[in-house]
Amino acid sequence: MGEVDVYALRGVDFNLYEGELLVLLGASGSGKSTLLNILGGLDVPTAGTVHYRDHDLTSANDKALTLYRRQHVGFVFQFYNLIPSLTARENVALVTEIADSPMEPAEALGLVGLGDRVDHFPAQLSGGEQQRVAIARAVAKRPEVLLCDEPTGALDWETGRLVLDVIARVNRELGTTTAVITHNVPIARMADRVVRLADGRILEESRNSTRANVEDIRW
Amino acid sequence: MSVLHRKLFRDLRRLVGQVLTIAAVVAAGIAAYVSTHSAWTTLHASRETYYQRERFGHVFAQLERAPLAVAARIAQIPDVRTVYPRVVMGVALDISTEGQPPVGLIVSLPREGEPPLGGLVIAGGRWPDPTRTDEALLLESFATSWHLGIDDVLPVVMDGVRRELRVVGLANSPEYVFAMPPGSIAPELDRLAVLWMPIGAVAPAFRLEGAFNDVVLGLQPGASVPAVAAEVDRILAPYGGLGAYGRDRQASNYLLDQELEQLRGLATYTPAMFLFVAAFLINVVLSRLVSVQRPEIATLKAVGYPDIAIGLHFLELVAVVSTAGAAVGLGLGAWLGRGLIDLYRPYFHFPGMVWTVAPGDVAIALLVTAGAAVFGALGAVRGVVRLPPAEAMRAPTPPVWRRGWIDRVRLDRVFGQAGQMVLRETRRHPVRLGFSALGIAFAVAILVVGRFNLDAIEILIQRQFRTAFREDLSVGFRQSMALDDARALGALRGVERVEALRIVPVRIRASNRWRDVAITGYPDGGRLRRVVDESGDPVALPEAGLAMTRKLGELLGVGLGDRVRLEVRTGDRRTVEATVAVLVDELLGIQLHMRASALSALLRETPQASMALLDVDPILRNDVIQRVRALPAVASVDATDEMVARFRGHIDENIGVMSTVIVVFASVLSIGIVYNNARVALSQRARDLASLRVLGFTRGEISAVLMGEMAIQVLIGIPLGIAIGRRLALAIASTVDPERYRLPVVVSAQTMAYATGITLIAALASALLVRRRLDHLDLIAVLKTRE
After folding, report:
1. Can you give the pTM of this predicted structure?
2. Where are the alpha helices (DSSP H) in B528-634?
3. In this prediction, does ipTM exceed 0.85?
4. Set of chain A residues whose Cβ sits within 8 Å of the Cβ of B787
5. Looking at the domain assignment, is residue A13 inside a domain?
6. What is the edge-to-edge ordering of all strands in the sheet holding B80-86?
7. Domain coordinates of chain B in residue numbers?
8. B700 touches chain A (CB under 8 A)
9. pLDDT digits 0-9 by tens, B86-96
C-alpha cells in the first residue's frame, strides 16, 4: 500500500474578528485542533493562506512564528502545561519576562481569582486552580489573541465553569480576541459566534443573539 | 527470538546514542586497565627473565684499586655465591658533534668465556678477540642512536691516550638496560657508550694489571644484602671502596623500579575512575528508561510475566551495553598495551620482550566491569521488580516542589524564571548533580595527571637550569687541579668568565646512618652557579659549615647545628667533622654545599678545582667547545641549554603519544556524562520545554534551560577535577624516590586551561548533539498529552 495524504482541514475559509469570543465546536478528528494550531502559529497549512492583521503567517519561518506567538498569542492547554518546578507567580513571570508590556504576575493571578495562591507550586493546586494559573499566564502579556484548547477537558463541570467564567471575563474586560475549542455543545452558548467543524470542513457558522452567562450553562 | 528480546533489541536501537557513549566509557575503562596492567606484567616479567638468564648481580661496589687476591676474601663472606672482580673506567669519546658529547664507559671482559655475572646478549657480530687490544662490544642502544654498526671505528681517549676501537659486536646487558650518563636525571640513550673489552686490553691501559676497581657479587637465595654489603665495605675500605650497594641502588635497575612503580600507580587510578562513571551512567539511563516504561512494565506484569523475567529483561540491556564495551575495551587495551610496550622498548631494551597479558588481569577487568554494571543497574531494576502492576498503570505522582534555601537567594532576579527552573532542577537531583560533576572532574583530573609531569619538569628546568645553573658550559676535569690551571681556561678566545667548582665525594655519617653524596665548593663572589631553594630563591652559603638538602637532614636524622662525620672518598681519604649550618629545600637529589674556602680549610688542602664553569661568547661557542674538549685534562664538556633541550625532548616524546590517548579517554568521559544527562533531562522535560516553545520561547532560550543544568555540572566539575588531579599527581609524585628528585606538584595555568578547554569542547559537542533533538520537539503533541 502506498502513502496516502490525509487532510485535517479542507477548504476552510474562516475569520476571527477583533474582540469577539468564538467557540469552535467539533468532535474528535473534526480538525478543530489543527485549525487552532494554525491560528496559533504552531503549524502552517500545506495549502492556502493565513493572515494575522498585516502578517502573512503562511510563509513565516520558525523564527517569525516564534515571534508571533511571543508577541500576540496567549495559549491555554487542556492539561495546563504548567512548569512543576515554578510557583504560580513564577509560571506567570515566565511569560511576562519575555513580553513587551505585560501586567504584573500578581495582577494577572488576581484577575483569575488566585491572588492568595501566588506562591503555591502546581502540585499544591487543584486542577481548576492550575488551569486558572495557565489562563493568568496566557493573559498576563496582554495578548491580542487568546487560544484555549479544550480548557475544561480535564476538569469536572463545576470547576470547568469557573475556568470558562474567567475566560469570558478576560474577553469582556480586556477585549482580547478569544477562541475556545471544545467538543462540549452547551459551552457554545457563551460565545458571540460559533463555528461547527466536521471532517475538516466548516459545517455551520452561527451567531448568538446574546451571550449566555457561564453560570447558566450546564453540561 | 522471544518478544521480550525483540523489545530489548528495539529499546537498544532507540537508545543508540546513550548505548554507544556508555559502552565507550566501559571500553575506555577496560582498555586503561588491560593496557597498563599488561604493560606492567610484560615489563616486570621480561626484566625478571632477563636478570635471571643473564645473571644480574645482587651487590655492586666500586673502589679505587685492589689486588685480585682481595676478591678471594670477598668470596669468603657468608651467602656469597659468585664474585666477579673487573675493571670499569669512564673514558672520553672523540666524536665530533654539534650537541652534547657522549661519554664512554669501558667494562672489562674476563680472560676466558663470558662474564660470570652481568652476562651479555650479543645482538649482532661476535665477541672481541681476547688477544687484541682494539676490539670492543658496544651497547646496542647507543649504536642505534648514533647509527653505528659492526666494523665501525670509535675513537676513545683512554687514560690520556687516543685509541681507535673497532666495534666487533653489539650487546645488551641487564646492568645497562637504562643508559643514564653520570650527572643526568633522565635516561639518555645517545649519551652513554658502554664498551666491553677483554681484560687483557683494559687493565694495562689503566695500569690495573692484576687488580680490579669494580666488583659484582651474586648471592645465595635469601641472603641479606645489607649484611653482605657491610662486609664488602669492611674488606674494601683500605682499597678506596666507595660503598657497596644492592640492586635497589644500581642505576639502571633503580630507574626501572621507578618507571614500573609509576605505571602501577596509573594502572590503579585510571580504570577505577572510568568504571565508576560507567556505573553511574548505567544507573541514570536505566532509571529513566524504567520510569518512561512504567505502563509497559505494568502491562507485562498484568499479563502474567513474573517479576524476575522483567527484572532480567532490563539487566540484559545493561549486559549488552557492558559486554559490547568490554569486547571493544579488551581489543583496544591489547592494542594500547602493545603500543605502550613499543614506547618503552627503545628505553628498556629487554631482549626478546614480547607483550603478554595475564589471564588473571583480563578476568579481573571483566569481573569489575560486570560488578560496576550490576551495581549501577541495581536500583532501577529493584524498582521494576517492586512496582505493583496497578500503580504502574498510573502516571507517576507529580513531583512536589517546596521552597528551599535557594529561593531565598532570589536568583531569579539575575537569571529570570528560566534560570530559576535550572536551579530548582539541580536542587532536586543533588546526587545526580554531584556524581555528574564528579565524573566530569575525573575527566579533568585525567587530563591534569597526563600533563603533570610536563609541569613538574618545567619547574625543575626553571629552577635548576635557569636559576641555579647559569653557566653556558660546564667543564669536568679528569682529576682535580690547581685553581690557576682551571682559571687558565679564561684565556681561550670566546670565554668571558670562568669560575671553578670543587666537588668532593664523601660518605656522610650521623650515628649509624649514612649516605654517599658529594660536597660542592662554590667560589666566593661566584655568579654562575648558585644554591636555590624549591621556590627558586638563592640561598646564601654560611661562612663555615655545611648547607644541606633538607631531605638529607631527614634521612640522617640531623638538624641545624648538629655535627656530622664526613669520610672523604678521594685523595688522602681523611675523615673530618662539620656542622650543619643551613638546611635547603631543594628539588633535586641530596646534596651538600659549602664555600670553596671553607671546604679547603675543612679538608686542609690547597684550593683546587674539579670543574670549571664558563660563560662564553655565543658566536664562538662551538669553537670553545671544540678546543676545551681537546684538552687532555678535560673529561667532559656540557652545554646547559643542550641539557635542557634534551631533557625536554625526552619528556615531549613520551608525553606526545600519551597525551593523544589521554585526550581521547577524557573526552569519552565528558561526552558520556554530558550527553547521557542531557538526553535523560530532555526525556524528562520535553513537555515543559515544548510548552515554553508554544508560549513563545525561542529554540536558543529553551536550549539554555536544558543545557543550564549541564553547564552547572561542568562548572562544578572543572575546579573539582583540578583539585583531584593535583591529589593524584601528588600520589604519583610520591612514588618517585625522594632521594632522586622531589617533583614539585604544581598545576600550571596552561594545564588548567588545557584540561578546561578539552572538557568544555567535549561537553559542548555532546550538548550540540542533543540540541538537534531539541529543535525537532513536537510542539503539537505536547498540547495533547498528559505527562
Report:
1. 0.74
2. 550-556, 596-603, 621-629
3. no
4. 79
5. no
6. B80-86, B211-219, B59-67, B245-246
7. 1-54+253-398, 55-252, 405-469+640-787, 495-616
8. no
9. 999 888 787 76
